[in-house]
Amino acid sequence: MEIRCWRICLIAVVALMTSGAFAQTAPLSERVVAYQIEGAYNEKTHTLDATELLTYTNRTGVTLNKFPFHLYLNAFQPKSTMMTEAERTGQRDFAKGTGWEDKHSGSNEVKSLEIVGAGDVTKQMKFVSPDDGNPDDRTVFEIALPTPLPPNQSVQFKIHFVAKFPEVVARTGYKRDFLMAGQWFPKVGVWWNGAWNCHQFHASTEFFADFGTFDVKLTLPARWNVGASGVQTGAKDNGNGTQTVTFHAEDIHDFAWTADPTTRVVEDSIQLGARTVNIRMLMQPGHMASAPRYMDALKGTMRKFDEWIGPYPYPQITVVDPPHGGGAAGGMEYPTLITADTTWWMPRSLLMPEVVVEHEFGHQYWYGMVATNEFENAWMDEGINQYSEAKVMDTLYGKETSVLRSRLGTLSERGLDLLGYVNVADRDPISRPGWLYMDGSSYGGITYSKTALMLLTLESLIGEKAVIHGLHVYFDRYKFKHPTPAEFTATMNEAVGQNLDWYWKQAIYGTEVLDDRILSASSERLDWYNKQDEKKGATVYHNEVLVHRRGTFDIPVVLEAKFDDGSTLRELWDGKDRWHKFTWDRKTKLVSAEIDPDHGRPLDRDHFNNSWTAAADRHATGKVAGYWTLLTQWLEQALSWLA
Amino acid sequence: MNGSVRSSAGLVWRHQRLVWWIFAVNLLLAWLASLPARATLSAVLDHSLESARLVNGFDVGALALLLFRPDVPTAALAPSAVGAAVVFLVYLLFLDGGIFAVYLDDRKLSRAEFFENSGLFFWRMLRLALYSLVPFAIAAAVNGGLAGWAGKLSSDAPQERLGFFVNLSGKLLFLLLALFARLWFDLAQARVVQDNERKLLRTIWRSLALVFRSGALFASYLGIALFSIVIFTAGVGLWVYLPHRATLASFLLLELLTLTMIATRLWMKAASARWVALLPRGLALAPVALPVEETPAPTPPTPVEVIEVTDVQPLSPEPPISE
């Protein structure tokens, strides 16, 4: 008997130790929500019939009378705000004026809603549209509590819902047998800055939610491979052609899952300090050539984030590779699960698989753990992550070749960012809420690219290490919280020991454009009246470089001047005035002059006017104009097929 | 077929002056069309250190940013390229009469003879080019239809690559149809010149019937096109390995490829001309079942001497009409 007891105790201890693989000893976050969801998927109708038990703990410090919920899948209706915005501005997988197709129809239908202990409140559900008042948008509903919820007390909502998935669009839905289930369950809003924050689903914006735990049980066709946020804790073949899989996740704020009968599972792990993180990739058979590329990029990224920003605290990361035609599900982040993107025969010189995996893993930090409000402050996730992407890709694949490294040409991360930014530079401030941008180009160019360029340019002012250190401090301080822009800038100021408000004001809150240029440069004899010939080394020249602040961004400028005796000078201009004249009276003539000689200000939207050379070099003109001539010749020949 | 391909290549080689002239005008027109772009680029690049990104390597981002600049109006520069292409087309249509006269006769025409033929047949060549828009448009429509279907298959078919392969097949079919249509109208052009034919519709229909009976000639066209593709691919493969600073070598190599493309196009014309020249007169002029216009008027004297089959040297050992 004693022996039997001992054995039972031993088994219990071992079970506890093994379960520790996914259950951290202490919560990493202030867990506000606990979702328990159980559902069955119908592959013919692409619907999930599910029951959700949400336990919400009031950690707001105030009494709560009502709760708002997101029903994101209701955005896939023709009159919804998201679809209307997408149709009008051409965003989120829709070209402008695409028109409605029934296959894009999706919905979250709440069959019943019960407040445990207070009864059914389904009829009290009230759809609201806090952002645009659209009466046909049903992506947010509110429910009033029969009894207010005091601080530190909990309330349970039991929701029976049916999720109907669209053909994959806006990063959720099915494609053939593939399913990417994102934003699929009723999700409660966030109490943030003293009020509920629960925005409608917009064409350009993403999401915002509270941290907690997720226990999800799904019944699916037995032949399907399943991946999800968190870790799988069980799988049972039901013997009727279906299987039931269970997942558990902690300290995350969203839960996504995917299923596909054709995927191949690639597993590996990475050691980061004392922690081992499992890597699980669900690959399309036709994309297996990209699997090692995904893996290398992911491991390299995880190491750099671990070194620069902080530890990845979860036991697993899952990478989902969407099928051909399912690209709308690609390049998306969910907690501990990311979707990649590639194609058959992806050229090795084009690093798009690497870029996507790097970018989406980076979101595990800025979206996943720091968890900013992506509706209102998209740049704090997308933009900071874009900066991280540039840093990591530069390190892993070379500063000039981090996107394209072919013999024909190269493309860098910062070059790509500049392309996105340059034509929308003055349209919107970074700080603008996502759905209020002029259009999708402006949203992308400013939120992603300008933020990245702004932080890269900051390196030229305070140093690369200082910026990375600042981000490390910011991450460490605000992980598992929901920081504001002011908290970001204050933390950066504090971490680097400088008041950079003058910079943030222009770069984040303003639409100032940085474009400094060399307007003119010359070397004239000082004794211009002298008729004698010039004598090298004896004649004194008045050398002059006129720098013009063509843009509106006020930032110090370094100018480097080179002279014909091989000497070099560097001088600083504070950049306050509209122009500045650098002059030197020397026995040497100017050979060249250059603003920002270390090329540390990628935010400058025109790099061609940053320098001047005394001697003309016609190589580049010859090359580019030569290609133009050649293309014209080939156009001539193409048309002459008629002759 | 080999003999036909070889002998028509010989025609092009013997009359290579045509290739050089066409190439020269092709290059001259393109150069003139690129002058505004050259001036604009020169103002931006010649005194900028940033231009090194385009010389020491080829930074695609720098190129794109250059083209995005408001003072480099890419869209405004495009019409000059299109204009050059149109002028080149008219130039070739003008030369077509002379070119076919040379290839049909296989002798060096005097300048006066050449341009007399060019002028004589210009309007007929222009009308033939306009008629040829119909089959080319049909080929383009087939391609468009298949591309649309491929897009749907790509999205909805259970086999994810089906759409891709249908699309690829559509492109290949389009190329074959375009080649077929070109052969058809090349034969029509050759017959117009040989017979000084004014009834263009009748010539077009007869040429179509002839194309269906001349599989070997189509095979020749296909072979010449494949040769051109192989040369082009090899040239581009070599070009890729040139150092980025080798601007002159790069230019010369790409121009050599352009010259080859022009030569292969003339090679096709020569093959058609030779084919028509070798046709027995009765067969060449035999009415076909398709629309027959009134009896042809007596052929007026033409500057081109009509070549009798028995006069042509050398004769191909193979029969001119495929069985």
Quick one: overall form of chain B? globular
The proportion of residues forming helix of chain B, as a percent range, comes to over 70%
CATH topology of the largest domain in chain A: Immunoglobulin-like
Largest interface: A-B, 59 and 72 residues
- For CATH, the homologous superfamily of the largest domain in chain A is named as tricorn interacting facor f3 domain
Give the tally of β-strands of chain A. Answer: 32
Main beta-sheet strand count, sense and barrel state of chain A:
8 strands, mixed
The string of secondary-structure elements of chain B, in order, is HHHHHHHHHHH
Query: What's the N-to-C terminus distance of chain B?
Result: 12 Å
Strands of chain B, count: 0
Q: Please state the average pLDDT score of chain A.
A: 94
**Which residue ranges of chain A are poorly predicted, with pLDDT under 50 across at least 5 consecutive positions?**
1-23
Summed up, the domain count of chain B is 1
**Helical amount among residues of chain A, as a percent range?**
25-40%
CATH hierarchy, class of the largest domain in chain A: Mainly Beta
Assign the CATH architecture of the largest domain in chain A.
Sandwich
Strand order of the largest sheet of chain A: 5-4-8-2-1-14-17-16
Question: Which geometry of chain A do the CA atoms define?
Answer: elongated
How does this structure look, described?
The complex is a heterodimer of chains A (643) and B (323). Chain A is an alpha+beta fold and 643 residues long. Chain A is built from eleven helices and 32 strands. The model of chain A is unreliable at 1-23 (pLDDT under 50). In chain A, the strands form eight sheets. Chain A has an eight-stranded mixed β-sheet with strand order 5-4-8-2-1-14-17-16, with no helix packed on it. In chain A, strands 19-20-21-23-22 form a five-stranded mixed β-sheet, covered by helices on one side. A four-stranded antiparallel β-sheet of chain A has the order 6-7-3-11, with no helix packed on it. The radius of gyration of chain A is 29 Å and the shape is elongated. In chain A, α3 crosses α5 (378-397). Chain A has four domains: 31-251, tricorn interacting facor f3 domain (Immunoglobulin-like); 262-369, Neutral Protease Domain 2 (Neutral Protease, domain 2, Orthogonal Bundle), CATH 1.10.390; 391-507, no CATH class; 516-528 and 535-616, Immunoglobulin-like (Sandwich). The longest helix of chain A has 23 residues, at 440-462. The relative contact order of chain B is 0.13. Chain B has 323 residues and is mainly α. Chain B is globular, with a radius of gyration of 23 Å. Chain B is built from eleven helices and no strands. In chain B, α2 (16-45) runs antiparallel to α10, α5 (74-105) crosses α7 and α5 runs parallel beside α10 (247-278). Chain B has one domain. Chains A and B meet through β25, α6, β32 and α11 of A and α2, α3, α4, α5 and α6 of B.
